[in-house]
Amino acid sequence: MMTTQILYALTGCVIVALGLRGALLHASLLQRIVAINVMGAGVFMLLIAVAYRGPGLPPDPLPHALVLTGIVVAVSATALALALARRLHAEQDDD
Amino acid sequence: MKTMTLHVFDGLLLLSIVALAWASLATTDVRRSVILFMAFGLVLAVAWGRLLAPDVALAEAAIGAGLSGALLLAAVHRQPRPLSPVSSNDSRHQGPNGLSIVVRWAVTLLSAALAGTLAWALLHAFSSTPHNMLPQAISGNLAASGVSNPVTAVLLNFRAYDTLLELAVLLTAVLGIFSLGQATPGYQPAGPVFDGLVHWLVPVLILMAGYLLWVGAHAPGGAFQAGAALAAAGVVLRLAGRSRIGLPDGSALRIVMAAGVGVFLLVGLSLLLLGRPFLGYPPAWAGALILLIETAAMLSIAATLLLAFLGGQPESTGVKAAAKQQREEISL
What we know:
A: 0% strand, B: mainly alpha, 73% helix
């Protein structure tokens, strides 16, 4: 049990909560997308903190690989969400 | 003394991360929100470096902050007025977003409860005896994986199936974007200073992509970071108003998009025919097979990210581009 690990993991929890609150409360679709990305970053921070095992020790590579995958999936989901939002507005403008 | 300095650094880093996340979500100005989110991503990359995760730091800086930021900023640019609220017509007298104070507080409390539960679960997990079986299994089998960077070994060998499916997710996302419409119109040609920068930046980015791909076998790097660097070269060309941004036309584009999943599957199925498990590389070939898959994956990832930045299916250069240029010349 290490203070560094706990400090970063708890910050990850706070960021997940901030992102969730933003995603639920924001009216603008674009800001909701930003908020979901912030929430994802919080989850990444939890995983990286869990992988950290102290200075001088090699960290656990498995969560690192998970987060790398997560970052790439997050950006593709963001791109799809933005395309959906753009189409949604184009449809609204037609009405 | 050294640990003391490190604690101060940790504290400042975490404070700025939380402050940037909060500031990015507290504002209702979309452009400000996106720019703060990009800063948040860059500071996160520093945190990943601090937690000895350089592979993730590279990916975060290039993809999380860089390309996500470019995507979001392009979306803000296309939508100068704030994106219309979901329900704006009948609830003006309530809070700024048309939500009552009660709802806002309920959501805040719900989020806080979630954070509390997560923190409780984590502290519980930390206080139990740590399981070192997986990290030990990874380091024990690293010699047979064909690479010496443990993160690459996990991504391309031990959990190659996950990465194959991830590339399938990328392909699905870009097909979804294609089905939603055409690419957005390009940008104005850049001024001389930016144009001069492009001449330097694009070759350097391509070189960097090649280096990251190669070095990923034994040091931080790999197909994702390399693909992001390659996509960044295309984004720079696009921002400079070039009509050719390195994407092939027609069926060649489709082949590049599917190359990552295709080569991965071909390697897996060939191994099945040779009597090995799906994606169970023979140790002697593992390094070469991983490099082959990563090269294809890099091209697919770069094409996907660039197409995501275009926001749709590109008009085929050639006839349409010539017609467009003619239109622009007439309007000038």
